[in-house]
């Protein structure tokens, strides 16, 4: 459960009084998520999600994240909307943290994504990329190529606490990525963390996207690579080419990939594996013992990275195995 910050009944009742949402009825910590503290809040007017922003969120970025949700929602993407308080603000302070209330989305995230989920995801991702056009705020990807080495430096002396060989795997791969990272790919606003637990479905229809707290300006194709890793491998970290093919086909049906994007997919998939290997490794070593959070296993991303290193091109590989 990701609850880093406890909120008392009285504190929350006072906080809710600041909004035109009726009276607080009940609230409980949410048993999912990694980055922030989330509570499910019931008031006499409805159900909302209360988020208290934690460690990795720079308060200066909050207008980007909350403004993006408003922009995407207005452009037809089903995502949470920040709720304004009685004086029109979306951000307030609660229990010493910046906090916001957002609307509750119906649906459940797929615990075992199927091919149809990957297809729908691909279409929704492309629609989201198009819908992001015209969003006026900018945010660099703090966990992009330039951020990986400084993050590695923070835990490189402790990698053996995770697994043997991890230090050299990361160090060698960082050198490769720094040499090979593609420039000049089509860019725009990307989600950058579109894992299954951030995408809701009602039956097989995609009902909404949440958790925009890593969103930034970066290459669209990098967002696809993040999804390939997160959606198209089974529980044993074996690549599932039918899902990869469905994701790419769904995306391509809405926003056709350029030749340069296709060619870059193998290195982007390696970079996307590196990004989550680094944050998971850091969190594995640094999550406070008393935090109510389920740490994510870095080993899943060691296996993905090794898979990408072993195949030439994930797009060719997908095409080969599905033709
Ligand atoms: N708008 C929402 N509607 C419904 N459930 C939500 C919403 N936002 C978050 N949740 C629930 O809270 C969980 C954690 O949210 P998330 O934004 O992923 O947290 P974190 O930023 O900590 O990763 C989600 O898996 C989901 O169950
Ligand atoms: N998706 C990341 C962890 C971030 O968690 P989220 O709850 O914000 O999606 C990972 O799997 O490492």
UniProtKB/TrEMBL annotation:
Family: Belongs to the pseudomonas-type ThrB family.
Pathway: Amino-acid biosynthesis; L-threonine biosynthesis; L-threonine from L-aspartate: step 4/5
NCBIfam families, A to Z: PRK05231.1, thrB_alt
Name the UniProt record assigns to this protein: Homoserine kinase
Primary enzyme class: transferase
CDD domains according to UniProt: HomoserineK_II
Highest rank taxon of the organism: Bacteria
Catalyses which reaction(s): L-homoserine + ATP = O-phospho-L-homoserine + ADP + H(+)
UniProt-listed Pfam families: APH
HAMAP family from the UniProt entry: Homoser_kinase_2
Record PANTHER family: AMINOGLYCOSIDE PHOSPHOTRANSFERASE DOMAIN-CONTAINING PROTEIN, AMINOGLYCOSIDE PHOSPHOTRANSFERASE DOMAIN-CONTAINING PROTEIN-RELATED
UniProt-listed Enzyme Commission number(s): 2.7.1.39
One BP annotation, GO: threonine biosynthetic process
Keyword list, A-Z: Amino-acid biosynthesis, ATP-binding, Kinase, Nucleotide-binding, Threonine biosynthesis, Transferase
Taxon lineage: Bacteria, Pseudomonadati, Pseudomonadota, Alphaproteobacteria, Hyphomicrobiales
Occurrences of domain Aminoglycoside phosphotransferase (ranges): 27-257
GO-annotated molecular function: ATP binding; homoserine kinase activity
